[in-house]
Structure formats: structure tokens, C-alpha cells
Specification:
Layout lengths: L3 E7 L5 E8 H7 L4 H9 L15 E3 H11 L4 H6 L1 E3 H9 L3 H9 L7 E4 L5 E6 H10 L10 H8 L5 H16 L3 H11 L2 H7 L3 H10 L11 H10 L5 H25 L6
Antiparallel strand pairs: 1-2, 2-3, 4-6, 5-6
């Protein structure tokens, strides 16, 4: 069901104006995007969400949609920015290499997935932005042929796969860019830590409750079927020790800021 509301804002002259707020389906239609394309545009920060409904559903200001349209450029340009391909075969065709070479490029971190889906065999199928693949091919023609660099050969010999870690870094960065305050930033970082690591980093149960309440929902496309969801949930958690250490240190710093905010305002989290 389409949701329409209103919100108050100040215009350039300081006068109070009223924005019409639209639900995601209607907002997507006004931008000429499918639901999937619109979700990707929101994920990438191309379209900024407005105040949420009481139930938590995102709404989008008419003024924001006008801004996106005016900045989009020629017809179809916005759709091109959010276009994705799924899997190594399709991505390799965009880049102009074979699937095995593309898989090596992705596993070694040269191209970063923008999303994922879990297929019926519970295997992860990575999604890539078409525009980024084309930019990579134009920027790094030497990577598309010839012998792999020694660093890549070492990574492949060790069985490395940087795709989950690179995707997590991208996902967290986008979420942090949309976080409204220090507690939300801390909640984003906390959501990436395995439970045992989170308990050590945040021993205060009251703070963990706040972080859980403010934590981000699973990304668009996260499966609902339990078996597939279990596979996808593993992608949301940091794995290598150095990655876990980085998120723990970042969360420590974010919590210092969040606690400082609580002491000064008495809002959001424990004091």
C-alpha cells in the first residue's frame, strides 16, 4: 500500500514549508525505476530517505525526488547508475574477460560487489554495478589479459576470497554515511561483530540493548527462507581476525562519542 504524508522543513528564506512524503513504491515510479532499482539507489545514497512512518517504513520527500531528477542527466542515466549484473559469467561479459579471470579479479579485491543473493543451492551470487565494471575495464586494461600479478597469485594459492570482506566494508561505509548520530554509527559498527566479540567490546547490557534497537535492518534482497538467510547472515559478520579488530576499535571510538552525547543531552543511550 502506498503511503503519502507530509513533513515540515525550512526553505532557503527560513520560512516553514510542507513536503509531501511518498512511500517507496510511488517514489520509485516517479523516478521511472523498478522497486529493485530504487532500493539500490537508496542504498547507494543517490536517493535520501525522509522521516519514517510510525511502523518504520521509509518515506521520500517530493523535493528529494525533484532533486534527484534534476541531477540525473539524460533519460535513462539514473537507471544506468544502479544497474547490476549477477554472478561471474554476466560480470565477465561486461568487463570483456572469461569467467575464471573475473572470479580471480573479484576474489583478489579488484572489483567490489554491491550486493548479493542466495540461489536455490544456497550458494552466494554476488552482484556488481555495471558502471563500476566498465570503469574498471577502462582504468585497468592490463588486468584483463596476461599473467596475474604475483600478489594475486599468492592470494589465490592461499585460497583467499576478499569478496565478503570487501562487500562488508562497502556496506558499512554506506550505512555510516546515513547514520544520524553517534549512537546510530555505533550501532552500525556493532552489527558487524560476531556475538562473542560484541559482548567483549560492549559489556554493558543496557548499551547493547540500545545498539540492537538502532541496528540496521538486513540489506535489500536478504532472503527470508531460513536456510538461505543463515548463509546470508554469515556475510554480515566480520570474519578475519584483523577485520574484527578494526571493527572493534572503530566501535570503541564510536561509543566514546555516543556516551559523550548522552552525557550532554541525556538522550539516546545509557549515561
Amino acid at each position: 500500500m502506498t503511503q503519502v504524508g507530509t513533513a515540515l522543513r525550512e526553505d532557503a528564506a527560513g520560512a516553514v514549508a510542507v513536503d509531501v512524503l511518498l512511500g517507496g513504491v510511488q517514489a520509485a515510479g516517479e523516478l521511472g525505476l523498478s522497486r529493485h532499482e530504487f532500493a539500490r539507489a537508496v542504498q547507494l545514497g543517490i536517493v535520501r530517505a525522509g522521516p519514517r512512518t510510525i511502523g518504520g517504513a521509509a518515506r521520500f520527500a517530493r523535493a528529494e525526488l525533484d532533486r534527484v531528477r534534476s541531477a540525473a542527466g539524460p533519460p535513462g542515466a539514473l537507471r544506468e547508475r544502479v544497474e547490476t549484473v549477477a554472478g561471474a559469467q554476466a560480470a565477465a561479459e561486461v568487463v570483456g574477460v572469461g569467467p575464471s579471470r573475473f572470479t580471480r579479479l573479484a576474489r583478489c579485491g579488484h572489483v567490489i560487489p554491491v550486493g548479493y543473493r542466495i540461489n536455490r543451492y544456497r550458494a552466494v551470487v554476488w552482484l556488481y554495478l555495471t558502471t563500476e565494471l566498465r570503469s574498471f575495464a577502462a582504468r585497468e586494461p592490463g588486468m584483463l589479459s596476461g599473467i596475474a600479478p604475483s600478489a594475486d597469485r599468492e592470494l589465490m594459492a592461499a585460497g583467499a576470497d576478499l569478496r565478503p570482506r570487501k562487500w562488508r566494508g562497502r556496506h558499512v561505509g554506506l550505512l555510516l554515511g546515513r547514520a544520524a548520530d553517534p549512537w546510530e554509527r555505533a550501532a552500525v559498527l556493532a552489527s558487524v561483530l560476531p556475538e562473542a566479540e560484541l559482548l567483549e567490546t560492549v559489556p554493558d547490557p543496557a548499551e547493547r540493548i540500545v545498539l540492537a534497537a538502532l541496528g540496521p535492518p538486513p540489506p535489500y534482497g536478504h532472503p527470508q527462507v531460513p536456510a538461505a538467510a543463515a548463509v546470508a547472515t554469515e556475510l554480515l559478520k566480520a570474519g578475519p581476525p584483523d577485520e574484527i579488530h578494526w571493527y572493534r576499535a572503530s566501535l570503541d571510538f564510536a561509543l566514546v562519542q555516543a556516551r559523550g552525547q548522552s552525557k550532554s543531552t541525556g538522550e539516546r543511550g545509557p549515561t
